[in-house]
């Protein structure tokens, strides 16, 4: 078997396939745990406060289990449950989505007023008309370490990793897939496609709407860093009238990581992503920091551009190829997918080896786009 693309999803798929005894190799054109796609940026959020769609809850529950199992097997610390504060107006998608999520699933949480949230965490200044939810098991994953660990353990289980190889083409015929790189030709019984922002041509052929957005992650130190460090400060997501912003406690001298989840400029070619920093990239972030964290005095220490691979409805695309039963694909993770990498790897392994999975992923299938077009 062959996995193309070894970022968050591909590295996990390679690990699970190898662990189940499959003869497997993975191809990655940009190297291990690189910073050119979507699986980088030091920290990525994990949460059970799932406002996007309550059907994600069984998947994220399993994702937590698998991240913890990966920690045990590797001896590495990958997931930190620092807690997560989510805030927005009651009529915003965030709060309405959380109410639906908690109404359907028995998950640990607290509902707070803005005043109660600020008494608990006085670093925040939230609008009086905001509601808030506290997710005590929310936190962050160390993203590059997660990718590298999946790949290292995959190799221990017998997988081959072919790094810095550019894929020129792939095809499926006569129950075999053929992959041609700039260095060799590979053949296998099954292909797993997890190429992130580079999945556009595949999804266009399948008539699955897909676009790529440029996003910028920023880090800010503060003279008052101790107020924003892990242990004193949680992860957060705050929905405002001008955007939704998420961030993490400071875990080193670079300070707080923060980014805007909403917005973003469309990218026509992922290979030509603008990786610079412009004033418009930072304007709303600085406005948010100034309004929300009085006295922080933010000093930017670092920035990094990445990409959101967006499906039409903001939900993932995980399925077998509509034309080739021996090709399995995953993409369109829409800026909220990395936390699921561990379970997506397991699901892709199920689909590749057995043609089906016990996980409830029907709502992520390709058929929803055909149904939408018909309507």
What does this structure look like?
The protein is an alpha+beta fold and 375 residues long. It has a domain at 1-65 and 143-209 and 313-375: FAD/NAD(P)-binding domain. It contains 9 helices and 21 strands. The protein has helices at residues 8-19, 57-74, 93-104, 114-120, 143-156, 200-205, 279-292, 341-354, 367-374; strands spanning 2-4, 25-28, 43-46, 79-80, 84-88, 110-113, 131-135, 139-142, 160-163, 167-173, 176-181, 185-188, 191-193, 210-221, 235-240, 243-248, 256-260, 265-266, 299-311, 317-320, 327-331. Strands 5, 6, 7, 14, 15, 16, 17, 18 and 19 form a 9-stranded mixed sheet that branches. It has a 6-stranded mixed sheet with strand order 9-2-1-13-21-20, with helices on one face. β10 (167-173) and β11 form a beta hairpin. α1 runs parallel beside α5, α1 (8-19) packs across α8 and α2 crosses α8 (341-354). The model has no long low-confidence stretch (mean pLDDT 96).
**Helical amount:** 25-40%
Report mean pLDDT, rounded to a whole number.
96
In the predicted model, the low-confidence regions spanning at least 5 consecutive residues are none
The CATH class of the domain at 1-65 and 143-209 and 313-375: Alpha Beta
Number of helices: 9
Helix-strand pattern, N to C?
Answer: EHEEHEEHEHEEHEEEEEHEEEEEHEEEHH
β-sheet strand percentage: 25-35%
Say which CATH homologous superfamily of the domain at 1-65 and 143-209 and 313-375 is assigned. FAD/NAD(P)-binding domain
Give a quick summary of the entry.
The protein has helices at residues 8-19, 57-74, 93-104, 114-120, 143-156, 200-205, 279-292, 341-354, 367-374, and strands at 2-4, 25-28, 43-46, 79-80, 84-88, 110-113, 131-135, 139-142, 160-163, 167-173, 176-181, 185-188, 191-193, 210-221, 235-240, 243-248, 256-260, 265-266, 299-311, 317-320, 327-331.
């Amino acid at each position: 078997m062959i996995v193309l693309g070894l970022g968050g999803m591909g590295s996990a798929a390679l690990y699970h396939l190898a662990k189940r005894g499959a003869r497997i190799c993975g191809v990655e054109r940009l190297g291990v745990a690189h910073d050119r796609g979507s699986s980088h940026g030091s920290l990525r959020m994990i949460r059970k406060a799932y406002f996007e769609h309550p059907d994600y809850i069984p998947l994220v529950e399993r994702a937590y289990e698998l991240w913890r199992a990966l920690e045990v097997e590797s001896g590495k610390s990958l997931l930190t449950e620092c807690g997560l504060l989510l805030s927005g107006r009651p009529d915003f998608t965030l709060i309405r989505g959380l109410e639906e999520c908690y109404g359907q699933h028995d998950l640990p949480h607290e509902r707070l007023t803005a005043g109660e949230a600020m008494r608990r965490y006085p670093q925040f200044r939230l609008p009086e008309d905001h509601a808030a939810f506290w997710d005590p098991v929310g936190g962050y994953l160390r993203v590059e370490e997660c990718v590298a660990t999946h790949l290292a353990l995959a190799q221990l289980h017998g997988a081959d990793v072919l790094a810095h190889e550019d894929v020129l083409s792939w095809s499926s015929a006569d129950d075999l897939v053929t992959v041609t790189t700039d260095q060799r030709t590979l053949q296998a019984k099954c292909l797993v496609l997890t190429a992130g922002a580079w999945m556009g041509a595949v999804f266009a052929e399948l008539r699955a709407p897909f676009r790529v957005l440029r996003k910028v992650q920023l880090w800010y130190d503060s003279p008052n860093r101790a107020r924003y460090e892990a242990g004193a400060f949680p992860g957060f997501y705050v929905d405002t009238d001008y955007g939704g912003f998420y961030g993490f406690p400071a875990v080193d001298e670079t300070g707080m990581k923060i980014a805007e989840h909403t917005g973003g400029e469309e990218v026509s070619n992922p290979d030509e992503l603008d990786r610079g920093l412009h004033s418009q990239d930072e304007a709303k972030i600085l406005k948010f920091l100034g309004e929300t964290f009085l006295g922080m005095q933010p000093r930017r220490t670092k920035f990094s551009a990445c990409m959101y691979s967006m499906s039409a409805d903001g939900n993932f695309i995980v399925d077998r190829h509509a034309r080739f039963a021996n090709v399995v694909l995953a993409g369109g993770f829409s800026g909220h997918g990395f936390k699921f990498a561990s379970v997506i790897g397991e699901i892709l392994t199920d689909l590749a080896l057995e043609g089906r999975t016990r996980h409830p992923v029907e709502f992520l299938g390709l058929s929803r786009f055909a149904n939408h077009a018909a309507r």
